[in-house]
Amino acid sequence: MRAANRRWGHVALTTCLLLAAAGCTSEDDAERPEPAASDPVSPGAQAAPLPPLPEGGQSLRCADSIATTPEPGEGYRVVADTVAVSSTVVQPNESSAGRGPTRLFAKWGLLVRVGAAVEVRVAPGWGDRARIGWGPGAVPTTTVQVEACPAANASTAWSVYTGGTWVASPACVPLVIQSPGRQVEVRLAIGAACDEST
């Protein structure tokens, strides 16, 4: 009887150990995190935010766009892969403001690639000679930021914003285009040709 009890005890102990081992293994597997899969960056994702909008700057939302287009089209050039600006001499007209850096206004549309947040600003040293502005009720300012907008459909690649550039007199106006991780200076021919394009 004592031997039978020892035998059953041994069997029970072995069974418990096997079950415990199996249980631990399955629990460990269940709780062990899977190797992280590489998460491709979506077209609209940004590596870093834009700088804070300065006082008096303009912020444009997706709803401020008047249209979308698959390509910028003739008369435009792409800058920093995110913005398309006029590549021709844009003739300014007398502005309603009529004084200082807003004396003349040259109308041209700003195109921003979908999924990209960008900042366009008048280059340092030009604040007393030029202003920019787009969107509904565009007002002259030195800095405009555009939020990243999703594509409306498969053929959408660029959002279009109406507005333009104000100048005190015809000039080759330098603008700074900034998107997360990139900054490029571009010159616009506002009533006067630029010596060379950038």
Kindly describe this structure.
This protein has 198 residues and is of the alpha+beta class. It has one helix and 14 strands, in the order H-E-E-E-E-E-E-E-E-E-E-E-E-E-E. The strands form three sheets. Strands 1-10-8-13-14 form a five-stranded mixed beta sheet, with no helix packed on it. Strands 2-11-7-4-3 form a five-stranded antiparallel beta sheet, with no helix packed on it. The protein has a four-stranded antiparallel beta sheet with strand order 5-6-12-9, with no helix packed on it. The longest helix is centred in the first third of the chain and has 30 residues, at 2-31. It is globular.
Reading the helices and strands in chain order gives HEEEEEEEEEEEEEE
Percentage of residues in DSSP E strands: 25-35%
Give the overall shape, derived from the CA principal axes. Answer: globular
Gyration radius over CA: 31 Å
Largest sheet data: 5 strands, mixed
Number of strands: 14
Distance between the termini: 99 Å
Total of DSSP H or I helical runs spanning 4+ residues: 1
Query: How are the strands of the largest sheet arranged?
Result: 1-10-8-13-14
Helix content: 10-25%
Question: What is the compact description of this entry?
Answer:
By secondary structure, the chain is of the alpha+beta class.
Secondary structure layout plus pairing:
Elements: H1 2-31, E1 58-60, E2 67-69, E3 76-79, E4 83-86, E5 93-94, E6 104-107, E7 110-113, E8 118-122, E9 130-134, E10 143-146, E11 158-161, E12 163-167, E13 171-179, E14 182-190
Parallel strand pairs: 1-10
Antiparallel strand pairs: 2-11, 3-4, 4-7, 5-6, 6-12, 7-11, 8-10, 8-13, 9-12, 13-14
